Each structure stands twice: as structure tokens, then as C-alpha cells.
Amino acid sequence: MNVALAKTTTGAVLDGTFAAARGRLPGVGTVAETRQQAFDDFARTGLPTRRIEEWKYTDLRNLLRDVAPLAPAPDQAALAQAAKLVETLGTGDTQKLVIVDGVFAAGLSDLTSGGGVTVHALSAMLDDATSATRADLLRSRIVDPMIALNAAFATDGMLIDIADDAAPARPLHIVHVATRPSVAAFTRSLVRIGNRARVTLVESFVATESAKAYQAHDAVVIWIGDDSDLQHVRVMEDAGDAANIATAIVTVGARTKFNTFSLTTGGGVSRYQSFITLAGVDSELSTNSVHLLRDKQHGDCTFVIEHAAPNCLSRELFRAVLDDRAHSVFQGRINVHQIAQKTDGKMMSRALLLSDEAEIDNKPELEIFADDVQCGHGATIGALDDSLLFYLRARGLPEKAAQALLIQAFVGEALESIVNDDLRDVAISAAERWLESRA
Amino acid sequence: MTALLEVKDLQVRVEDREILHGLTMTVNGGEVHAIMGPNGSGKSTLSHVIAGKPGYEVTGGEILFKGEDLLEMEPDERAAKGVFLAFQYPVEIPGVTTMNFLRTAVNAQRKARGESEYLVPDFLRKVREVAASLNIPMDMLKRGVNVGFSGGEKKRNEVLQMALFQPSLCILDEMDSGLDIDALRVAADGVNALRSPDRAMVVITHYQRLLNYIVPDHVHVMSKGRVVKSGGKELALELEESGYAQYEDAAA
After folding, report:
1. Which residue has the higher pLDDT, A66 or A176?
2. How far apart are CA A288 and CA B48, in angstroms?
3. Which of A181, A252, A335, B235 could staple B219 via S-S, CB 3.0–4.6 A?
4. With contacts defined as CB-CB under 8 Å, which chain A residues touch B53?
5. How far apart are CA A92 and CA A199, in angstroms?
6. What are the pLDDT digits (tens) for B59-82?
7. Tens-place pLDDT, residues A124-156
8. Nearest residue, CB atoms, B161 vs list A395, A405, A409
9. Beta-strand runs (E) in B159-237
10. What CA–CA distance (Å, rounded) separates A311 from A285?
11. Per-domain residue ranges for chain A?
């Protein structure tokens, strides 16, 4: 009964938000129809609650209450602030594509195409009435209320095409900047990678000091062809009272390597859900995720891996360092399809609890329909080892520095998975910023 | 002249049990003291309390280091002031390379003393030089601290740190445990190379064997939480003959 009531209330409020936003959302005709459909799909459930199994540990109706009103398009002042912040990212030489409060900022971005790389703003593509398939940009194969909400409201994002055999020298780098308080930004990016291509994709989420209690809703849809290699690094440093609800939907071809790393230090409430399908034979997937959380931060890392082709390998590594009353969630699901013989899938979650009140929920799920597979999962939870701490202190390290060194060691394995030196340094610096702010 | 280390009537408890019942000893710069005694006599407790290991309650007495109250200092402050404990069982720290650990520790100590950080090339040169003298291959230093090290390698790693940090007081807790004679000789040579007029060493050992390699100026026999006899290096040989039994009776 309460469910129905809550749904109606949230739905009604959101109806107003959607109606108010509609005029600003790019795309008419089929695009607008797709948005309406997506909104209706979302409105049927509203913000997910703990009663939806996939969202059991991240009850957004409780954690978010509402979807915030759509962020206004950035003005000159917001763009100037964003520009300043982007300069300090220190990510080395990347091709930056900057999105400010949900709107692509051409002036801060490098839209250079060439060498097999084509880059467009999503809004322009949605508005392109000559494209018969423009509404597909908002569709996805995963049914999930937050993905539907994202499709309904998406204002902008990037559409990146990488041709066969391309190997761009610079990583492509999508930077999300939030500058305003108490608003929501909805972004969606699509990355289509051909065969025999080698690509590095970076995503950063950052906020200026004026951005408080905002919401970032993001979706990234990636297709990787055969014999390709995608190195993906995501660093989320949103404001500590912000929400970041993000989805990645990835389809991996044959004989392809996909290595994805994510670091979450920001966000009061965050969820990063990845749906990865290994659709071609002999591919390798490696996921490395790190949560560094404190205060009352809630972070959720959810992976659904579909082994849909034979002889693929998947390795999932999750590390959480939790202080104060932080709460981390790791859900890892591996579905091995009947055809996917010789699957080798493993996941491992390790949590380091720095306080008595920190909390982690681990939910591994294996569903196996093939008979010749190796699958496994494991989880450990522990505190910092006192004997190691004393050893370091007896060698001159003050308490916080000794803790920091042990925490670095704990997350080191995941950080080391980043192949690109500059990007590894970026992740290490973000982790160091977190450690220094503890002191 | 102020003594380097003065332990006065030290009384220490662990939980409800008193381990040290009024221990007194004075160590001056340049001296090597050996503390011998049977298991459970309080030797390791003394070394832990000097280094500042948590879990020990000092219920009486004091420890002065260069005239300052050591018990008021955090373990890292003691290290920066020049106290070094070579652990009986050095811990393994996976994920922290020995090199990174050494540099972090040296710089933390220098920072605490208001000195500038070591420049990387200078530091590397110093480590290379010391490691070579201790027969420690450089690729061992790229591995996690003590991870996969043999007993002898772990002890050599302790001596390496001693040589880098240049402490004024070195406490060697059962350095000979788990070492064969060759490994012991290498470690002892490393320690002997560090003997100097302004540095003191306190060598804690159960057996006289170690003292053939690190020859002490003074020998103290501990039993049941007290020093029951002190003497010159000949006392160690005497003990080798007669055993600890007579002192256990004496302390009772």
C-alpha cells in the first residue's frame, strides 16, 4: 500500500519536472516519443527501492528522495569556473570533451576528428532530423528504472566513433563538471569502436566549489568490435553531498581485451552499474574498482557480466576502504550462457574497515548454464593490522602516514591494473587526495 | 655527561600481569650492552617499551633518552630522535615496496627533525652502497617489504634500515633467532660496522653465540623482570657454562 502511495507521489512530482524540462530536451519526433516512453517506464516504478532486488542495498527512494530539477544550461560564469577546474585535472595529454551541468561545452573541448576518430555532441545528433536512427541513441538493451530516467532526460553527452584499425595516440577523455547546487544533470554517451582498434577512454566527474547537493545521472553505452583493445579509466570525485547514478552498458566482440578501472572517492550517494556482455569468443575482461569512502557516503558498485560466447575470461577485483559511517555495496553477477563453454570467471571483493561503524554489503551471484566452466568468487573484510602499523611507526612514520601507506598498499593491486602511466598517476593522485584529506 | 639511555626502576604491566618489577640500567654512547636471560624474563618487553609498542602499561619508573622522557613520545617521535628497534620477527607488508618504505621512513624522520628530504639520487646511491655491503640484491628492494624474504634476509633488511637511519640507540631483539651461522655472520658484520663512539647498542639474546660476533662491553642477566647480575663480556661465557638456573633461583 505504501508502495503505491509513494509511487504516485514521486510520479506526480516527476511528471511536473518532466513537463517543465521537455522544452529544453533535444530531439523532436521519434526522439521525443522515445523519451516519453522511457519516462513512462520509469514512472511505473519510480526511484528504485530496496524491494527491487537489484537495488536492495541502494534504496534510492530513501537515499535521494526525489529527482532534482533539471540543471539550467551553463552561463559564461559557470563555463569559466569549469575551464579553471579542467586545467587542474592533471590527466596528461588527453583529448578532452567537457560537459558542464549536462551540456556539452564546445569551447572547453577538443573536437578534433581524424586518425579514425569522429566525435560529436549527442544533442546535435538527437536534433539531426535527417537521421532515421537518432532515437536509437536513447535506447538500450537493459531494463532498469534509472537507465530509463536517463533516456527520458538526457540533455547531452558524446557520440564517439572509432574506425577499424584506429589507434588514437591520445586517450579520449569525457569530463563531467558540476557547477550548480540542487539540480540534476542527465548525460549519455555512446562509444562505437570498430575492429582491430586500440583505444583508451577516460571519464572524470568533478565539481566546482559552488556545486552542492546536486545529482549527476550518466549512462555510457560502448560497443567494441573484434580483435580490439579498450582501456577504460573512470574517476569519480563528485562533491561529498552529491549523488552520482551511472550506468555503463558494454558489448565486447571476439578476441578483444576490455580493461576497466573505476575509483570512487566522491558523492554522498553513488552507484556505478556496469552491464558487460562478452559476445564474441576468446575475449578478456578485467574490472578493477576502488571505493574510498568516509563520513556517511554510500557507494554502490554493481557488475553484471554476461558470458555469452565460449572461451572468455573475466576477472573482477573490488577494493573498498571505508571510514566513519561509510557504506559500500559490491554486487557482482556472472551469467554464463549455455553456449559459453570454457568460461573462466572470477570475482574478489576485499574491504578494509577503518571504523567500527563502517559497513559493506557483498552480493556475489553466479548463474551457470554451461557445464565446462570455472567460476569463483571470494570476499574478505578486515581492519588495518596493528603489528604492521607499529612496525611503520617504529620506523618513523606518524600514525596517519602509516595508515595511509597501508591503505595505498591495499588498493595498490587495483591501481596497478591501469596500463597508461599518466592515467595511473591520475588515479593514484585522486587516492592520495583522499588520504591527505583524512589527516 | 648525560647518558644515552637511562632506565630507572621500570615497572611494566601487560593486562593484569606485571612483567618488569623495577628494572634499572644505564647505557652510554659507544657502549654495547647485552641483555641475556631465559624465556619470559622480560627482555623483549623491555625492548618493546623502549620502542613504544602499544599494549604495555608503565606503572612506575622512567626511561630517559638523552635526558628526555621517552615514555611521553609517540613511537615515530622516538624513531626520529634516534631510537631503533630491530624486530625479532620483522613483519611482511605486501603492496609496499621496500624501496618506497625506506624512502618514506627516512623522509618522515628527517621531516620530524626539521631536516630537508633526501634527494632521490642521493638516497638511491646510499641504499645501493649499504645494500651491497649486506649482500642484499637491489631487486629484493623492489619487492613488498619482507614479502617472501628468508629469515636471514629479513634480519639483513633490519640492519639495512639501521644503516640508513643512523640511529643513536639500536636495540637488537633476538637478532640470532632463526638464523644459521652464515646468515648470522653477515648480519653481525653489518651491526659491527655501525659501532661508533656516539652510538650505543643493546643486544637482546637468549644465547651466548651471538655475542661471539657482536662483542659486548657489558652483560646484564635478566630474570623474572629484573636485572639480577651485571658484568663484563666474560659473564656471557660464564652463563654458557652454568646456565640460567642459578639466577632464576636468585630472583625468586
Report:
1. A176
2. 40
3. B235
4. 390, 394
5. 16
6. 999 999 999 999 999 999 999 999
7. 999 998 888 899 999 999 999 999 999 999 999
8. A395
9. 169-173, 200-205, 218-223, 226-231
10. 12
11. 74-384, 385-439
ipTM field: 0.96
* A residues 363-422 closer than 8 Å to B (CB): 385-388, 390-399, 401-402, 405-406, 408-410, 412-413
DSSP B146: T
SS3 label, residue A96: strand
The mean pLDDT of A372-398, rounded to a whole number, is 97
Contacts of B84 in chain A (CB under 8 A): 394
Tally A–B CB contacts below 8 A.
76
Q: So what's the architecture of B5-251 in CATH?
A: 3-Layer(aba) Sandwich (3.40)
C-alpha cell read off for B160: 639495512
User: Which residue's entry shows cell 588527453?
Assistant: A94
Global pTM reads 0.88
- State the amino acid at position B3 in one-letter form: A
Q: Chain B contacts of A399, Cβ < 8 Å? A: 74, 76
Phi, psi of B80, rounded to the nearest 5 degrees: -65, -30
Domain boundaries, chain B: 5-251
Reported as half-sphere exposure (CB side, CA atoms, 13 A), residue A151 has a value of 30
- Best of A387, A392, A413 to disrupt the B interface by mutation (most B CBs within 10 Å)? A392
With beta carbons less than 8 A apart as the criterion, state whether A145 and A176 touch.
no
C-alpha cell at A363: 552480493
Place of cell 556545486: A211
